[in-house]
Write a structure and sequence with these properties.
Layout (H helix, E strand, L loop, with lengths): L2 E5 L2 E4 L4 E8 L5 E9 L6 E6 L5 E3 L7 E6 L4 E6 L8 E9 L3 E4 L3 E6 L1
Parallel strand pairs: 2-11
Antiparallel strand pairs: 1-3, 3-8, 4-5, 4-9, 5-6, 7-8, 9-10, 9-11
Length: 116
Amino acid sequence: QVQVVESGGGLVQAGGSLRLSCVGSGGIFIINNMGWYRQGPGKQRELVASITSGGSTNYADFVKGRFTISRDNAKNTVYLQMNSLKPEDAAVYYCNVDFYGLGAYWGQGTQVTVSS
Protein backbone atom coordinates (compact mmCIF):
# COMPACT_ATOMS: atom_id res chain seq x y z
CA GLN A 1 0.00 0.00 0.00
CA VAL A 2 1.37 3.37 -1.03
CA GLN A 3 2.20 5.76 1.79
CA VAL A 4 3.49 9.30 2.06
CA VAL A 5 5.08 10.29 5.35
CA GLU A 6 6.39 13.72 6.33
CA SER A 7 8.78 14.60 9.13
CA GLY A 8 10.82 17.52 10.37
CA GLY A 9 8.26 20.03 11.58
CA GLY A 10 8.52 21.78 14.90
CA LEU A 11 8.88 25.07 16.72
CA VAL A 12 11.41 27.62 15.59
CA GLN A 13 12.06 31.30 16.24
CA ALA A 14 11.53 33.83 13.52
CA GLY A 15 14.61 33.96 11.33
CA GLY A 16 15.42 30.35 12.01
CA SER A 17 15.47 27.29 9.78
CA LEU A 18 13.79 23.92 9.49
CA ARG A 19 14.14 21.06 7.06
CA LEU A 20 11.14 18.96 6.15
CA SER A 21 11.39 15.49 4.65
CA CYS A 22 8.83 13.37 2.88
CA VAL A 23 9.19 9.80 1.70
CA GLY A 24 6.96 7.77 -0.56
CA SER A 25 6.86 4.06 0.18
CA GLY A 26 4.86 0.89 -0.23
CA GLY A 27 6.02 -0.93 -3.30
CA ILE A 28 7.74 -0.65 -6.62
CA PHE A 29 6.74 2.57 -8.33
CA ILE A 30 7.84 5.56 -10.29
CA ILE A 31 7.35 9.00 -8.83
CA ASN A 32 6.53 11.94 -11.04
CA ASN A 33 6.09 15.33 -9.39
CA MET A 34 6.57 15.91 -5.68
CA GLY A 35 5.40 18.98 -3.87
CA TRP A 36 4.94 20.76 -0.58
CA TYR A 37 1.75 22.57 0.36
CA ARG A 38 0.70 24.34 3.52
CA GLN A 39 -2.50 25.23 5.28
CA GLY A 40 -2.68 27.87 7.95
CA PRO A 41 -5.55 28.27 10.41
CA GLY A 42 -8.68 29.33 8.59
CA LYS A 43 -6.90 29.32 5.26
CA GLN A 44 -7.00 27.17 2.16
CA ARG A 45 -4.22 24.78 1.33
CA GLU A 46 -1.68 26.45 -0.94
CA LEU A 47 1.29 25.34 -2.98
CA VAL A 48 4.67 26.14 -1.47
CA ALA A 49 7.02 24.43 -3.92
CA SER A 50 7.14 21.54 -6.34
CA ILE A 51 9.77 19.56 -8.18
CA THR A 52 9.57 17.30 -11.22
CA SER A 53 11.29 13.96 -11.63
CA GLY A 54 13.90 15.77 -13.71
CA GLY A 55 14.58 18.32 -11.01
CA SER A 56 12.74 21.35 -12.34
CA THR A 57 11.39 23.44 -9.50
CA ASN A 58 8.54 25.84 -8.94
CA TYR A 59 8.07 28.14 -5.94
CA ALA A 60 5.31 30.29 -4.60
CA ASP A 61 6.31 33.94 -4.61
CA PHE A 62 6.09 34.17 -0.84
CA VAL A 63 8.94 31.64 -0.34
CA LYS A 64 11.26 32.50 -3.22
CA GLY A 65 14.77 33.09 -1.97
CA ARG A 66 14.03 31.54 1.43
CA PHE A 67 12.90 27.95 0.77
CA THR A 68 14.59 25.29 -1.34
CA ILE A 69 12.98 22.09 -2.56
CA SER A 70 15.08 19.10 -3.54
CA ARG A 71 14.64 15.38 -4.02
CA ASP A 72 16.56 12.16 -3.84
CA ASN A 73 15.04 9.81 -6.40
CA ALA A 74 16.97 6.81 -5.09
CA LYS A 75 15.31 7.31 -1.71
CA ASN A 76 11.89 8.41 -3.03
CA THR A 77 12.31 11.44 -0.81
CA VAL A 78 11.63 15.14 -1.20
CA TYR A 79 13.01 17.82 1.09
CA LEU A 80 12.04 21.38 1.88
CA GLN A 81 14.76 23.52 3.39
CA MET A 82 13.14 26.52 5.01
CA ASN A 83 15.33 29.47 5.97
CA SER A 84 14.54 32.93 7.30
CA LEU A 85 11.23 31.69 8.64
CA LYS A 86 8.55 34.23 9.43
CA PRO A 87 5.56 33.95 11.77
CA GLU A 88 3.30 33.90 8.70
CA ASP A 89 5.02 30.69 7.56
CA ALA A 90 3.41 28.84 10.46
CA ALA A 91 1.09 26.17 9.12
CA VAL A 92 0.61 22.46 8.66
CA TYR A 93 2.85 21.45 5.79
CA TYR A 94 1.68 18.63 3.54
CA CYS A 95 3.62 16.57 1.06
CA ASN A 96 2.03 15.52 -2.19
CA VAL A 97 3.51 12.71 -4.25
CA ASP A 98 2.35 11.79 -7.73
CA PHE A 99 2.91 8.07 -8.30
CA TYR A 100 2.95 7.11 -11.96
CA GLY A 101 -0.19 5.15 -12.77
CA LEU A 102 -1.53 5.41 -9.22
CA GLY A 103 -2.31 9.06 -8.80
CA ALA A 104 -1.36 11.68 -6.23
CA TYR A 105 -1.23 10.96 -2.53
CA TRP A 106 -1.06 13.26 0.48
CA GLY A 107 0.88 12.82 3.66
CA GLN A 108 -0.65 13.38 7.07
CA GLY A 109 0.98 16.78 7.50
CA THR A 110 3.62 18.17 9.82
CA GLN A 111 3.17 21.24 11.97
CA VAL A 112 5.53 24.19 11.63
CA THR A 113 5.29 26.85 14.33
CA VAL A 114 7.26 30.08 14.13
CA SER A 115 7.53 32.27 17.21
CA SER A 116 8.07 35.99 16.89
